[in-house]
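Re: that backbone. C-alpha cells:
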C-alpha cells in the first residue's frame, strides 16, 4: 500500500522520484482502533496528505479521473463513485473527506450531503464534505452552506486548488469557503 510519482520543473532540470510506503511491525499494524485525523507532510517543498482517505463522487468519468490523479499526486488514498446512491453506500468513517459534484442526476449533491450528516450523527466521525462545481453562482455557495458542506472546489480542479482546500480544512478547520 502506497504511492509513487515523479515531479519535474521542466526539460533539462532533473526530476524527483517520490514514494510513500506503509511500514510497521507485523501483527501490530491494526492495533489502534481510534480515529486518526490525517497529518499533512511536506514533500519536495509542497504540502502532501499521505494516506488521507478521500471519496470522490462525480458522474463524469473524465472529471473523476482528473480529480483522482490530483489527489493521488498529493498522497491521498482515493475511492471513486459515479452516483449519489453509490456514494451513500460506500462512505464510511474511514473517509476523512468526500468530494462531490453537486449537479448529478437523481439525488443531487445537496441531498447527498444532508444524508451523510444523518448517517454520521457524531460530528467527529463525519467526513468533511467538499462540493465540486463549475458554477460560481452565489446560490450554489449558499446551498452548499445550508446543507452543511465544509467547502467548495471550483472546476476545473487544479493541484493548487486541491492542496489549498485540503490544507485549510485539515490544518485549520476553516469555516466554509469557495476555492
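Recovered sequence:
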Amino acid at each position: 500500500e502506497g504511492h509513487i510519482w515523479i515531479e519535474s520543473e521542466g526539460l533539462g532540470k532533473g526530476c524527483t522520484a517520490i514514494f510513500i510506503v506503509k511500514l510497521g511491525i507485523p501483527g501490530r499494524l491494526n492495533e489502534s482502533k481510534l480515529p486518526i485525523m490525517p497529518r499533512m507532510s511536506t514533500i519536495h517543498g509542497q504540502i502532501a496528505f499521505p494516506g488521507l482517505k478521500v471519496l470522490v463522487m462525480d458522474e463524469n468519468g473524465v472529471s473523476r479521473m482528473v480529480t483522482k490523479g490530483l489527489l493521488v499526486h498529493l498522497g491521498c488514498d482515493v475511492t471513486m463513485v459515479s452516483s449519489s446512491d453509490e456514494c451513500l453506500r460506500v462512505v464510511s468513517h474511514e473517509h476523512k473527506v468526500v468530494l462531490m459534484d453537486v449537479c448529478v442526476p437523481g439525488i443531487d449533491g445537496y441531498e447527498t450531503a444532508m444524508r451523510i450528516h444523518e448517517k454520521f450523527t457524531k460530528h467527529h466521525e463525519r467526513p468533511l464534505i467538499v462540493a465540486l462545481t463549475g458554477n460560481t453562482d452565489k446560490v450554489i455557495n449558499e446551498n452548499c452552506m445550508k446543507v452543511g458542506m465544509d467547502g467548495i472546489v471550483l472546476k476545473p480542479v487544479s493541484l493548487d486548488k486541491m492542496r489549498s482546500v485540503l490544507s485549510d480544512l485539515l490544518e485549520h478547520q476553516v469555516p466554509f469557503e469557495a476555492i
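The longest helix spans residues 159-172. The chain has one domain: 41-172.
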